[in-house]
Amino acid sequence: MTNHWIDMVNTDVAMICGSNAAENHPIAARWLQKAKDNGTIILSCDPRYTRTTAFADYYCKMRSGTDIAFVGGIINYALQNDRIDREYVRHYTNATFVIRPEYDFNDGLFSGYNPDGDPPRYDSSKWGYELDESGVPRRDMTMEHPRCVFQLLKKHFARYDLETVCSVTGADPETYRKICDVYTSTWAPGRVGTWLYAMGTTQHTHGTQNIRTYVILQLLLGNVGKAGGGINALRGESNVQGSTDMALLFHILPGYLKTPAVGLETLQDYLNKYTPKSNDPLSANWWQNYPKYMVSLLKAFWGDHATAENDFCYSYLGKISGNLSYISLFEAMYAGKIKGLFCFGQNPAVAGPNANKERDALANLDWLVCVDLFESDTSVFWKRAGVDPGQIQTEVFLLPALASMEKEGSVVNSGRWAQWRYKAADGPGEALSDAAVITRLVLALKELYQQGGQFPDPIVNLSWDYNVDSHGEPDIHMVAAEYNGYYTSGPNRGRQVASFAKLAADGSTCSGNWLYCGSYIDYADGKGPELEDGPHITQVRGRKTINRMAKRFAEDPAGLPPGRCIGLNPDWSWCWPVNRRIIYNRASVDLHGNPWDPKRWVIRWNAEAGKWEGDVPDGGWPPMANPDGSENPKTKRPFIMRPEGVACLFAPSLADGPFPEHYEPLESPISNPFSSRQYNPVIKVWEPDKIGTPDEFPVVATTYRVCEHWQAGNMTRNTPWLVELVPDVFVEMSPILARELGGVRNGDWVIVTSKRGRIRARALVTNRFEPFFVGGRYVHQIGIPWHWGYNGLATGDSANLLTPHVGDANTMIPEYKAFLCRVEKEEVA
Amino acid sequence: MEISRRSFLAAAGTTGTAALLGLLGLDLRPAAAYAQQTTPRRGKVYTTICPYCGVGCGAIVEVDDAGRIVNIEGDSDHPINLGAMCSKGASLYQLHDNPRRLRKVLHRKPGAGDWEELTWDEAIRRIAARVKQTRDENWISQDANGHTVNRTDAIACLGGAALDTEECYLLVKAMRALGLVYIEHQARI
């Protein structure tokens, strides 16, 4: 989230599209309801009438997989009716940037397309900015140049007219026009809209571009950076933000540094490749600090062994080539290339797409280690129905883990708040924390590799000084202090680094994750209420320290002056980066530093004091204009993480094009009316023989969650109270479809079949689903919650037995949200 | 004026109770007396954060004098949830006190039809040996073009969005040091 949960109360219009917040983030939805009490308009756009829809002012239905068409039409509406914030667009986006003449778009394809690769690829150099003689992107501040982004954008989205959009999405034209009108009303000064989404948006072969449509619209309306605005991904797991920040993903290292690629032999090669450059004196180009963050990371990993002479142990890191993401990983396992697997609180036998294939792949492992609270479906894949354990040669270890209230540490919520929790009691039996499991394993491997082995140095030299106790539990405060970082040499040696601005590239600082620098500091660097006594005052390595993540000073709105009651809570926990509660907040002010919206300002420039007030600004540079209107040479543009310094309406770095374009899901009931390209032209099609067609599988299906269960279900399907509430897997379908199937009634068992598998589930016949009129005919859609599996207190078929092994062109997130199936009434013998 | 149960209890435990009641203009003494009767086992209260979705709601964990968790409920001092919990959050107690929780290390031999118990020492010894053997047999120092690679493709690691941030950091540090590159988790899917 650019903003945070409480901030929803500040908005004028909330669009919930690709999320069912009332079901999956119920407590957050209370803030929406509170906002509604204050007059906020709530819009719900979804294939199904959901619990969120139930309190929305307007609901517009849309077929799964058609977000780009749906939102592209709103973008077109905003542009055609001039409902955009021109000043914001001109100065804070790349609308004015001129694109090179090689850029083109024709019949669903951008220029630079090479169909021969697997997957096919674009040469994105065709989409670059035109540069002036000093190497700075050329701009046309009138936004009239035919090749400036604004004009290209207008041209691209002019094709998204209401009629075509409604014929693709199945939206009712009148309702759709109302949605366009209400949401784009937030272009006006003093009005703001927030866009809330979740996996309904991302889990598509064009998921990244779905989000891009939201971003483009929010930028055109001037809604990013403001209180009550932003692009807000509602995250589904308590620490999926923290785990992503810590880079449990193949392509990144902690703090979103890149995993070294094959060919980058030295640290210098690597830094040259990934440190962006800008010739624009007004660009902060924050990533120019990349070398400081990378060297500090290597120092945190290998301590004193990492020196300038040995490239700070850069050679210890594995170099990657190709895509090694989740689907690729399971394809490699299925092909027998992966021999061993660790599963820390993850349950792929239920959670993965085409789950039959993933379950079969597990049998190719020599060994499997599962660390969990309960016996997970994955851990017992060898004794599920239909397989002979005697034929499965996998050695399996199931290690008992501690639950959240049985150990100490932090989790990061969707608003980037890192919040500390405490150990209240011992766990059951011999359960240990995941930290202890990892630690015991590392210490055992260090011992083994001291006696030799392949490339032993990265293991033997790995820094692991965490005061480990007799159970193997490390001192978790020392771990937190290390990812924050401390000085490793010089006069400050041992002192916590107070901010990432102070990290160094010469090896004098360590920091396991630069984004978290500032979360765990020396007491001497503290200020304000955090100096008061409390559990956040700690001792690490003999120093008096402040664990800012443990801070609990909630804001009292009554004690704040008018305009400041926006719920930032700056002294409650800590949020990255540098406790900035609303990121891109320098776009919330005009060129002089005055808030666009004085009623609920985030930051403002105090000219007398020469500094910003309010939230932590995106850099302390002065506003862009001097009082007389001239450009201030000391300023920096507001989007400091981009080399351009502005936000991207046109994004040349994506795999599937600089603008979003509607393509159908891999499996779709209609042909794409926007172009002759049926589906995203640069996705990897893993299983061409496993694509269902509408003649055999006429019904669109999607998956989702219910409030009473969580993800792959291993925690909730073993909790009796929750099992009592929702015991069985079900399929939601419209009464019309139920009739067409020969009279299916609520509670009847039905069989759902896709090209990959079949499941048995109870029918939930409800008007919440209606058929869609698309491509000139009616198409049915059904929905299935995906929590169930074959093990646990409550069991049932997994919806993922049906879903395809195909992913987004940029992220390879699976297309769980739109596929084809057939539904039949179960014949009772 | 609204008063939550938690702040009421906190206030009731201080010498300012009478003053608070006076301010409210209400006679809450019977309620205070009842509240005191119903909490005889309270030893300590810990704050925690719900382990389910990404909202980050606060909860309080009440522990009796024997160190047993006796109750978990919403934290009314928490600015996001103000004491409220959804159905999952309201069931946190059963995540802790649950006969289905794993208590021992379980081990399944190749081809076996059921689990056997193992000690931690033995499990760690065997897993470490497995990791070393797989890693060493499948170590890639260089690719076909002579580029340094220093990795193994034969071991993968999944998880964990359910781990604490510190644990995620330790996990990535350990797995990268081992030369794993198939490192993925829930955030991808």
Protein described:
The complex is a heterodimer of chains A (829) and B (189). By secondary structure, chain A is an alpha/beta fold. Among the domains of chain A are: 5-233, Dimethylsulfoxide Reductase, domain 2, CATH 3.40.228; 688-825, Beta Barrel (Barwin-like endoglucanases). Chain A contains 20 helices and 32 strands. Chain A is globular, with a radius of gyration of 27 Å. Chain A starts with 12 loop residues before the first strand and ends with a strand. The model of chain A has no long low-confidence stretch (mean pLDDT 97). Chain B has 189 residues and is of the alpha+beta class. Chain B is built from seven helices and eight strands. At the A-B interface, helix 2, helix 10, helix 13, strand 12 and strand 13 of A face strand 1, strand 2, helix 4, helix 5 and strand 4 of B.
Task: Please give the structural blueprint.
The complex is a heterodimer of chains A (829) and B (189).
Chain A lengths: L12 E5 L3 H4 L1 H12 L3 E6 L11 E4 L5 H14 L5 H7 L12 E2 L2 E2 L2 E2 L6 E2 L26 H10 L3 H8 L3 H12 L8 E5 L1 H4 L4 H14 L10 E3 L6 H6 L6 E2 L3 E2 L8 H8 L15 H13 L23 H9 L5 E5 L3 H4 L3 H8 L4 E6 L22 E6 L8 E4 L4 E5 L12 H17 L6 H4 L15 H9 L1 E2 L21 E2 L9 E3 L14 E4 L2 E5 L26 E2 L27 E4 L4 E4 L84 E6 L15 H6 L4 E4 L1 H6 L8 E5 L4 E8 L6 E3 L2 E3 L1 E5 L33 E7 L4
Parallel strand pairs in A: 1-2, 1-8, 2-3, 8-9, 12-13, 13-14, 25-31, 26-28
Antiparallel strand pairs in A: 4-5, 6-7, 10-11, 15-16, 16-22, 17-18, 19-21, 20-21, 23-24, 25-32, 27-28, 27-32, 29-30
Helix pairs in contact in A: 3-6, 3-7, 3-9, 13-15
Chain B lengths: L4 H8 L4 H8 L4 H9 L4 E8 L8 E7 L4 E6 L12 H4 L1 H5 L8 E4 L7 E3 L1 H18 L1 E4 L5 E11 L6 H13 L2 E5 L5
